[in-house]
Amino acid sequence: MPYGTLYLIPVPLAENAAAKSFTPYLVDTINSIKEYIVENEKTARRFLKEAGLTTPQSELVIHDYGKHNREASGGEFFKGLQAGNDVGLMSEAGCPGIADPGADIVDKAHRMGIKVVPLVGPSSILLALMASGFNGQSFTFHGYLPIDKVERARSIKELEAAAIKNNQTQLFIETPFRNNPMLEEILRSCSPKTRLCIACDLTSETELVQTKTIAEWQKKVPELHKRPTIFLLFR
Prior knowledge:
- It is built from 9 helices and 10 strands.
- The chain is elongated and about 60 Å long.
- Strand 6, helix 7 (about 150-165) and strand 7 (about 170-175) form a beta-alpha-beta unit.
- It has a 5-stranded parallel β-sheet, with helices on one face.
- By secondary structure, it is of the alpha/beta class.
- The chain folds into 2 domains: about 5-120, Cobalt-precorrin-4 Transmethylase, domain 1 (3-Layer(aba) Sandwich); about 125-235, Tetrapyrrole methylase, C-terminal domain (Methyltransferase, Cobalt-precorrin-4 Transmethylase, Domain 2).
C-alpha cells in the first residue's frame, strides 16, 4: 500500500485573523483528513473549528509533537502515513517547518519517501519582509539572537555589518517578553543611518509595520512587550 501524503497546514498568526488566513483548498483539505501532527493540541483544535471543519473532532487522531513528546513519540506520528492515510502537520502559529520544530517531521517524511505538500498560508517572516521595503532577493533569517547582553550586542553589530557588506536583509526574532530589551540594544548598537523595520502583531487588529532609520526610531520608541515581532536590519 502506498504511503499517505503529509500536508503542511499554516495556522493564523493572530486571533480574529481567520478570514485572512484560510483558502478554499485548505478548508477542503482539512475536511478530507482525520489525522494530525500538531505542536499544540488546544490551538490546533481551535484552528480546525475556525477553518470550517465538518468532521466531528471526536473522530480525529491528533499527535502532539510539543517539546515533551518529540523524542518519545516520534515513531507513532508516521503509522497513519505508512498505512496510507493522509495527515496534516500544524505549527502553533504560522507555517509548519519555518522557525518551527515541525521541520524535523518533514525531514523524516522525506527520508521515508512520504509525499509532502505545503499549503498556502501566513508566514510572519515573509509578511515582514514583503512590507519592509528591504532587499527581498537576498536575505537571511537568524532566528533568536543570544540572550547574554554582550553576545547579543556583538551579534547585532555583525548583522548590521553583513547587511551593509552584502546588501542583504537581516531578519531575527526574540521571545515576546524580551522584545523591549532587544529593541533597546538594537538602538544602542547600530549606526544612526541603518534602517530598522519593526513588524509586530502581523495580521492582527494591532498590527504595526514601520521602517525607519535608527536615529528616527530613537526619537519615539514603540512598546513591544509581549507582542510577536520580527526585526529586520538593512542599510
